[in-house]
Design brief:
Oligomer: heterotrimer
Order of helices and strands of chain A: EEEEEEE
Distance between the termini of chain A: 26 Å
Largest sheet of chain B: none
Number of strands of chain B: 0
Radius of gyration of chain B: 14 Å
Order of helices and strands of chain B: HHHH
Radius of gyration of chain A: 16 Å
Largest sheet of chain A: 4 strands, antiparallel
Shape of chain A: elongated
Strand order of the largest sheet of chain A: 4-3-6-7
CATH topology of chain A: Immunoglobulin-like
CATH superfamily of chain A: Immunoglobulins
Largest interface: B-C, 17 and 19 residues
Structural class of chain B: mainly alpha
Chain lengths: 104, 102, 278
């Protein structure tokens, strides 16, 4: 399966700048398929966890409110170049993905 | 409102006078002769602006509303909306003569 | 020398002279715009005009840069790439229809085809490729097909300088028709393209800055907002509707001639497709 999560993690002076984007439909469950007229069932990411150097730095509980192909960006202190950045998410259908990158 | 035989006659005559050979079958509306004339004029004016490729969205919207009002038999609304459509359509034809912007 | 021969020679000279002045006309128009804007907007480099309205707001440009780091439309580009690389009915690929396999050709479109007697846009060339190789044409206004394919296909020309040519009597006429459209007031709001993008470039309409003509066509198709795909002529439709003028069809001769004139104004500037706008 193709990687849905992309990570860009770089040290900006003494702060780690982490940017993540996930290819995900984030369907609200309220949209109608324009061709069939049927409601498209909800399909969205529920939880996101990010660890840096083994330590959890961010946990998020998402909902239908987050848009398609969600982008997440944040900064972390106390990290150093070479640390492993791990992003894990789960969606409401039970699908999930774990992706790794190295802090540059 | 009782449909008046004159209304149908007048609509038919107006269409002939407008000289449109390709006029599609239009339903007979239960409106006054004055409203029918206003509607037919508006249709002709908007068609002219479309042929000139200078039609305004607001003129077409007013004409659509006029036709909806005609289907409901609301003669007053037909007159009001048709006159709006006609004046907008005529103004858009005038626009074809405006000088180019420098 | 017979009268017939004399007339033929004179018309040839006339055509050549007219043709020469045609190029001079378009280039004069472009230089006029460059001078106009550079006098008005001191300090903005010519190359930066490709950013359009973003050059007038540092905050907007910063948002753009942020968006472009990780754009949320990679799945659409990927879909476009698949469409481009999938062979057509008779086994040929789109790459076989263009020189250099479609790389660095985008800047040459639109061009005037003397045989066909009309302007040919990049999308028309794509459809000609489809027809020649056994496929039905794509609808010009369908973002899912023509839009998605061209947002990838035109990116193969990223970095190429726009290089529109206006040579010959037919091309000159089409260019002038497009130019006339640009300067004609339309719609109940009575605006010509020039009112906003020449006289009022750098000013705001409601809350949005108006972009200058130079650099406007270098970056299409593009994504607006959260990833809504727009082609250039889709934008023409929206602009016409905004002034309450009934828009022309995407792929119509009116818009093709406009695109021809419009694209010439970006000659010399680098292309970059699939960028972000609000």
């Amino acid at each position: 399966m193709t990687q849905l999560t992309k990570i860009r993690a770089t040290m900006q002076v003494d702060v780690a700048d982490i940017r993540i984007i996930v290819t995900h439909p984030m369907e609200t469950g309220q949209r109608k398929d324009p061709k069939t007229g049927q409601v498209v069932p909800p399909h969205f990411i529920k939880n996101v966890t990010v660890t840096v150097g083994g330590k959890t730095v961010m946990e998020a509980q998402w909902s239908q409110a987050v848009s398609k192909n969600p982008y997440l960006g944040f900064r972390v202190r106390g990290a150093k170049a070479g640390d492993k950045v791990v992003v894990h998410w789960e969606d409401n259908k039970g699908e999930s993905e774990t992706t790794e990158a190295t802090l540059a | 409102m009782v449909r008046n035989g004159w209304t149908t006659v007048l609509i038919g005559l107006s269409l002939l006078m407008a000289g449109c050979a390709e006029v599609p079958q239009r339903p007979s509306y239960a409106i006054t002769p004055e409203a029918a004339l206003a509607l037919v004029s508006a249709q002709a004016d908007v068609k002219a602006s479309q042929n000139a490729k200078y039609a305004w969205t607001t003129a077409i919207a007013a004409l659509n509303d006029a036709e909806k009002a005609a289907a409901k038999g609301d003669s007053a609304a037909v007159i009001r909306l048709s006159r709006t459509a006609s004046s907008l359509a005529k103004a858009s034809i005038e626009q074809t003569r405006y000088p180019l912007v420098q | 020398m017979t009268m017939k021969r004399l007339i033929r020679i004179l018309s040839t000279i006339g055509a050549v002279a007219f043709g020469a002045s045609a190029v001079a006309g378009a280039e004069d128009d472009r230089r006029h715009f460059v001078e106009l804007y550079q006098n008005r907007f001191a300090g903005i480099q010519l190359a930066d005009y490709v950013y359009g309205a973003l050059i007038f707001s540092a905050d907007a440009k910063a948002q753009y840069d942020s968006m472009m780091v990780m754009p949320p439309w990679q799945d659409v580009i990927e879909q476009g790439r698949k469409m481009w690389e999938t062979p057509l009915k008779n086994g040929n690929t789109y790459a076989s229809c263009f020189p250099s396999e479609g790389k660095n050709v985008g800047g040459n479109y639109p061009y005037f085809d003397d045989k066909l007697g009309k302007v040919v846009t990049f999308e028309m060339a794509i459809n000609r490729c489809r027809r020649d190789n056994g496929e039905a044409e794509y609808k010009y206004d369908d973002m899912a097909t023509m839009g998605t394919l061209t947002v990838y296909a035109r990116s193969l020309s990223d970095g190429m300088s726009v290089n529109i040519k206006v040579e010959g009597v037919g091309a000159q006429a089409a260019y002038e028709t497009g130019k006339r459209f640009f300067y004609s007031r339309r719609g109940q709001l009575n605006f010509a393209c020039a009112n906003c993008h020449v006289g009022n470039a750098g000013n705001r309409v409601r809350n949005e800055f108006l972009s200058p003509v130079i650099g406007q066509t270098t970056h299409w198709p593009l994504f607006r907002g959260e990833g809504d795909l727009w082609t250039l002529q889709r934008r023409y439709v929206a602009c016409n509707a905004l002034t309450r003028a009934v828009p022309f069809a995407i792929g119509s001769e009116e818009y093709n001639n406009l695109e021809y004139f419009h694209s010439y104004m970006s000659n010399g500037l680098p292309m970059h497709t699939a960028v972000w706008r609000k």
